[in-house]
Design a protein that fits this description.
The protein is α+β, with helices and mostly antiparallel strands. The protein has 8 helices and 17 strands. It has 2 domains: 2-67 and 163-336, Aminopeptidase (3-Layer(aba) Sandwich); 69-149, Elongation Factor Tu (Ef-tu), domain 3. It is 27% helix and 27% strand. Strands 1-2-12-3-13-16-14-15 form an 8-stranded mixed sheet, sandwiched between helices.
Length: 339
Amino acid sequence: MKRTIELIKKFNTLVGPSGYEDEVREEIKKFVLKLGIKSITESPLGSLIIKVGTGKKKVMLAGHMDEIGVLCTYIDKDGFIRFSPVGGVSKYGLIGTRVKFINGVKGIIGAESLKKPDDFVLEKLYIDIGARSTKEAEKLVPIGTFGVFDREVDVLGTRVAAKAHDDRIGCIVMMEVLEKVYKKKLPYTVYFVFTTQEEVGLRGAKVAAYDLEPDFGIALDVTATGDTLDGYKMAVKLGAGVAIKVKDSSLITHPKLKDLLVKTAEKNKIKFQLEILDRGGTDAGAIHLTKSGIPSTVLSIPTRYVHSQSEMIDLDDVKATEDLLEKLITTSDLGNLKF
């Protein structure tokens, strides 16, 4: 767990809004090169692709490097920055939130006078970077500059709160599994794909899948939980194990894949739960619609407060996700499934 926490702390200090995942990609590349792996490529849209194994069947793993954020769209005469969301940013909880732009400039989100609930719209919010005029602000944060939310990592027992578990924790799971399996004789050719622009339309995964033409797709991502007071009703909770996707807005997992995951988890005594997400999707939503269709599934890490600045995960669930992914690509009957 100590190693996982170290990676969480490192990757949640990085700035990686959709389309500007460079910092994240470079850190993952350093990790992979340190292992001695040479088969590394980058797609034209910036996804990082690591190939291991030589099996006939091809498996594509996908975890997205980008996080939700903001984009500077206008600066008023007093130097306040107006912004638009990048990805699914909720207006609730934004006031007082700190922001860090890709050029390192920091700011705080404030709001115009809000006299009634209907006034609370994103258009009423602004980012204060301490500038006193349009000209001063433009020198620091030019129009078109992207940014992310700026928040430290807090370790709360086996639970960890951070700004970008979605989906840095999916990337970390893939990295740790890669380290465990890259020297083994795998029954498949496995592509570890760290994708771009998931939060704005699953774009990096879509083009990578088109190029790789895998036989199977597996996304590693977070999912919501239903275990908070008066919260969203959902049969997923922290600490209950890896969540095996049944359905979300972008994907219905093929029953044979779902059954194989359940069978593999039960055989290896890995804690799991079944996930049905009414709203939202993952890279698997794009992968499974590529070309003539690619059977796909998702291993999800349960996460409270998704798309907030304090997403919370449980390290036991992370370990269960790693264990199931490793077993799936090393010992399961995935390659024998007929579709």
